[in-house]
Design brief:
The chain is of the alpha/beta class and about 325 residues long. About 40% of the residues lie in helices and about 25% in strands. Bound molecules: zinc ion (ZN) (2 copies).
């Protein structure tokens, strides 16, 4: 039976393929770059039969008999999940930023240490013990949809890669994930933005045991840097392509600035945990998973405020607390 696929040419010999995922807006966009009867792939969707069938059908439709390389923007399940199937055991060359490499094993292979580390992180940040237990275990479900592969090349950023017949520069854009990358085709004015710049959503920027120490500052710096490239088209991993990178970046920056001001107010003169701050900022969340994202996002803002000297952060082995200067 033929598989129905959502495949469209977004630039000459560059094809967007939309793959199903069970979260965000239900789709992740990956990109195929054709070069004769070979192709390169940017991001690969989750490790599910439906998603992998769509990739194989797209390759066949494009007449690509061999997948040469797989580049991933970051190691979240919707971008890296099928890496082991497509690029494992030398099937294709996997390229990823070197700060993503050490995240893979603790997250998807041997989870026990990270589960414990996350549980401690939740507790010191004020999460009640029963909720911390459930939340620290939620990582296990994600590991089901990921088959890891070892990279053939670890990127630092600023490399020029050949994908299809194009040359794209690696732009390291930490924040959403420590080794998140965008790819820039300067000649054609195309920016493949991964989860860094999305048209509808503000990507989750979280402080957690595997993040960079000040992810929000990293993220905002990367946004400005990408806007300065003045791409004529942004090709995001979720949502539809768009042209006005500058205004989207401005909107995202404004969103975070407002959030920083709001959280600075909420912190107040009395010491609070990040959990209290997150609940006051976003209200009582219905799903625990959303609560965890809110906690991480709240912490990223609190940390940025502390680094700027706008709030005071105090730590002991059992608590992390925040108050207004
Ligand atoms: Zn992501
Ligand atoms: Zn994503």
């Amino acid at each position: 039976m033929a598989v129905e696929i959502a495949l469209s040419e977004v630039a000459s010999e560059v094809f967007e393929l939309r793959l199903p995922i069970p979260f965000e807006d239900g789709m992740v966009n990956v990109f195929l770059f054709r070069d004769g009867d070979e192709a390169d792939l940017l991001d690969c969707g989750m490790n599910s039969e439906e998603s992998l069938d769509a990739i194989q059908a797209a390759l066949a439709e494009l007449g690509a008999r061999k997948l040469r390389s797989l580049v991933v923007t970051h190691i979240h399940p919707d971008h890296y999940g099928a890496a082991g199937v497509l690029a494992g055991e030398g099937r294709a060359d996997l390229y990823m930023h070197r700060l993503e490499v050490p995240l893979v094993h603790p997250r998807y292979v041997e989870l026990e240490h990270l589960v414990e580390q996350v549980r401690t992180y939740l507790l010191v940040n004020g999460v009640p013990a029963d909720e911390a237990e459930v939340l620290s275990n939620s990582q296990r479900a994600l590991s089901q949809v990921v088959t890891p592969a070892d990279p053939a090349v670890q990127l630092d950023g600023a490399e020029l890669l050949q994908l299809g017949r194009r040359r794209l520069r690696v732009e390291w854009t930490p924040g959403h994930s420590p080794g998140h990358i965008c790819l820039h085709d300067g000649e054609a004015g195309l920016l493949f933005a991964g989860d860094h710049i999305l048209p509808e959503l503000s990507p989750n920027i979280g402080l957690h045991p595997q993040s960079t120490p000040n992810p929000l500052a990293d993220y905002l710096e990367g946004l400005h840097r990408m806007a300065r490239l003045e791409p004529s088209q942004v090709l995001p991993a979720h949502g539809r392509p768009f042209s006005d990178a500058q205004s989207r970046v401005e909107a995202l920056v404004r969103h975070h600035q407002r959030r920083l001001d709001q959280i600075e107010e909420i912190v107040g003169a009395e010491e609070k945990s990040a959990w209290q701050v997150a609940l006051e900022t976003w209200g009582p969340r219905h799903m625990l998973y959303e609560k965890r994202l809110a906690l991480q996002e709240g912490l990223a803002h609190l940390q940025a405020l502390a680094v700027e000297g706008r709030v005071i952060k105090t730590v002991t082995p059992s608590t992390v607390r925040w108050r207004k200067l």
